[in-house]
């Protein structure tokens, strides 16, 4: 167009100028028409794409047809695929470890003296290698598996999902998350059981999904995965809709609170969960956090090939992180600045974030992997809970022993290192005990087997012992929690009693039923304390409810002991 314009101007006539003007206007108009048409086509294409969510949707661009609401992603069917396994090879004797922005990994940063390779770090001085710490919020399982990372921080529950394809060694528990993870729900939801028929926003294959699946599993509420917000679960199921990450899941629920209310809550972590509650004007609340529910355990996962070829370096990593944890626990003021600088936080923010973490020491680590820790979830226990919670998603589960390697921990203990440390996990209390006056976190109906017309447990029934262990597990994974055993008996003969002796006989038999149910609840309590002698009796209470609260028309199911679990919040 510029050459045409030049030639016309050179002609210098008035007519030429007019022609020039007409041509310019025409060309500009044609260009504008074509550009607008192209713009319309692009907009239509974008709208079509947004109506079909995909797991590749960028979090910052995730939109739905509902204004600015984040769009759900297409859920992955089965377990997440990983890049092929390969051995990590250090460059210049530097190991690269990836973490997320989380205070629980502060011990590693303190041990390294920051994020960059450091000749004055514990790793360099004691074991002759350096560490470069990188930070990302995306999952790094493939990078670790494929040999692009020496190690990464993850949570125990994810190992069960990754399974045999994940060639990694777990030599260390870094710590427990204590209050960072939360389930936020509509104000009227009082327990996990009441989530049946509801829909929550979450993110797939991480601790947020496991946390809600674990709670639903214990409450006996099946979980179903939904593809979009227009899908609904059955009245007995909890529906999960997935988003790119927990922050987006929380934003999606926040949007629905002021819109069509197709979501009844979200599962995520601070500060996103806190922000939802604060902005809800009382419409949302925290149902439960993991402040006193210790099933989110952070561990160090090391590339399998590298770990097998370099056991001394693995021992150095374990030693260094445990020493960093010790310094951050026992000398917080002197070390908090290193963590704050690494994450771009103020010292006050770093201290606040650290208050939501329990940094593990050596004896806690050994008890965690041995399964003998009595105040939190163990490695094997959490792993198995994850297998059960995910159900058919994990088609061919492996065993926890595939990943755990306590060689480095045993070596440190044998040398007498950290000999002054003890297991020091305690409940974080906002009250003196879990209140039985309010609503339980969840209820679980268990049909213990008793001798006929008796309050004596049937000692030959192996299921009874399994049920006792279930109750023990509640108390174990939640320091300070309490269980209320509510005995129930069958109400099938009420009509018969009424026919035989009227309301007077019904009242008389109701009192006997109340006492029998109470005796059965007490029998469960006594058997529980006999099997697990370390349980504090004050954490168990038993009551009888007779036939007053039938679970339904099934006589067999009404002969039950209901276990209500009250956790500290």
Automatic annotation (TrEMBL):
<dbReference type="Pfam" id="PF00691">
    <property type="entry name" value="OmpA"/>
</dbReference>
<protein>
    <submittedName>
        <fullName>Phosphate ABC transporter substrate-binding/OmpA family protein</fullName>
    </submittedName>
</protein>
<feature type="transmembrane region" description="Helical">
    <location>
        <begin position="12"/>
        <end position="36"/>
    </location>
</feature>
<comment type="similarity">
    <text>Belongs to the bacterial solute-binding protein SsuA/TauA family.</text>
</comment>
<dbReference type="InterPro" id="IPR006665">
    <property type="entry name" value="OmpA-like"/>
</dbReference>
<feature type="region of interest" description="Disordered">
    <location>
        <begin position="44"/>
        <end position="83"/>
    </location>
</feature>
<keyword id="KW-0472">Membrane</keyword>
<keyword id="KW-1133">Transmembrane helix</keyword>
<keyword id="KW-0732">Signal</keyword>
<feature type="domain" description="OmpA-like">
    <location>
        <begin position="437"/>
        <end position="569"/>
    </location>
</feature>
<keyword id="KW-0812">Transmembrane</keyword>
<dbReference type="InterPro" id="IPR036737">
    <property type="entry name" value="OmpA-like_sf"/>
</dbReference>
<feature type="compositionally biased region" description="Polar residues">
    <location>
        <begin position="53"/>
        <end position="62"/>
    </location>
</feature>
């Amino acid at each position: 167009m510029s050459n045409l314009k030049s030639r016309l101007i050179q002609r210098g006539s008035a007519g030429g100028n007019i022609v020039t003007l007409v041509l310019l206007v025409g060309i500009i108009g044609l260009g504008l028409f074509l550009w607008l048409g192209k713009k319309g086509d692009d907009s239509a294409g974008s709208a079509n794409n947004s109506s079909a969510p995909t797991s590749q949707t960028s979090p910052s661009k995730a939109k739905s047809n509902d204004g600015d609401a984040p769009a759900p992603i297409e859920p992955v069917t089965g377990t997440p695929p990983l890049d092929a396994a390969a051995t990590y090879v250090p460059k210049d004797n530097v190991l690269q470890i990836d973490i997320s922005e989380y205070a629980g990994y502060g011990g590693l940063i303190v041990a390294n003296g920051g994020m960059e390779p450091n000749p004055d770090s514990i790793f360099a001085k004691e074991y002759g290698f350096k560490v470069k710490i990188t930070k990302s919020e995306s999952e790094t399982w493939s990078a670790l598996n494929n040999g692009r990372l020496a190690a990464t921080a993850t949570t125990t529950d994810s190992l069960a999902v990754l399974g045999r394809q994940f060639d990694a060694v777990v030599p260390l528990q870094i710590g427990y998350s204590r209050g960072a993870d939360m389930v936020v729900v509509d104000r009227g939801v009082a327990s996990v059981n009441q989530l049946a028929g509801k829909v929550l926003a979450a993110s797939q294959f991480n601790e947020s999904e496991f946390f809600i699946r674990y709670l639903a599993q214990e409450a006996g509420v099946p979980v179903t995965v939904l593809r979009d917000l227009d899908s609904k679960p059955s009245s007995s199921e909890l529906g999960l809709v997935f988003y790119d990450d927990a922050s987006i899941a929380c934003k999606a629920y926040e949007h629905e609170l002021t819109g069509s209310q197709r979501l009844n809550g979200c599962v995520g972590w601070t500060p996103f969960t806190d922000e939802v509650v604060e902005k809800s004007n009382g419409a949302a609340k925290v149902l439960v956090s993991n402040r006193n529910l210790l099933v989110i355990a952070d561990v160090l996962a090391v590339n399998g090939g590298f770990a097998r070829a370099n056991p001394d370096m693995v021992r150095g990593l374990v030693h260094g992180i445990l020493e960093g944890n010790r310094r951050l626990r026992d000398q917080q003021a002197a070390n908090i600045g290193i963590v704050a600088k690494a994450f771009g936080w103020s010292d006050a923010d770093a201290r606040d974030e650290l208050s939501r973490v329990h940094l593990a020491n050596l004896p806690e680590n050994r008890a965690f992997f041995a399964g003998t820790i009595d105040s939190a979830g163990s490695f094997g226990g959490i792993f198995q809970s994850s297998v059960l919670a995910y159900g058919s998603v994990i088609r061919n589960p492996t065993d926890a022993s595939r990943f755990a390697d306590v060689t480095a921990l045993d070596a440190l203990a044998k040398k007498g290192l950290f000999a002054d440390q003890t297991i020091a996990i305690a409940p974080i209390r906002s009250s003196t005990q879990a209140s039985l006056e309010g609503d339980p976190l969840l209820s679980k109906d268990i049909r213990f087997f008793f001798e006929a017309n008796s309050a004596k447990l049937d000692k030959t029934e192996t299921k009874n012992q399994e049920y006792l262990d279930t109750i023990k597990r509640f108390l174990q994974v939640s320091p300070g929690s309490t269980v209320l055993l509510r005995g129930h008996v069958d109400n099938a003969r009420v009509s018969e009693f009424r026919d035989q002796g009227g309301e007077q006989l019904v009242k008389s038999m109701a009192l006997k039923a109340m006492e029998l149910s109470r005796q059965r609840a007490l029998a469960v309590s006594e058997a529980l304390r006999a099997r697990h002698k370390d349980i504090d009796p004050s954490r168990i209470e038993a009551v009888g409810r007779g036939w007053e609260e039938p679970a339904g028309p099934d006589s067999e199911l009404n002969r039950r002991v209901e276990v209500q679990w009250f956790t500290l919040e």
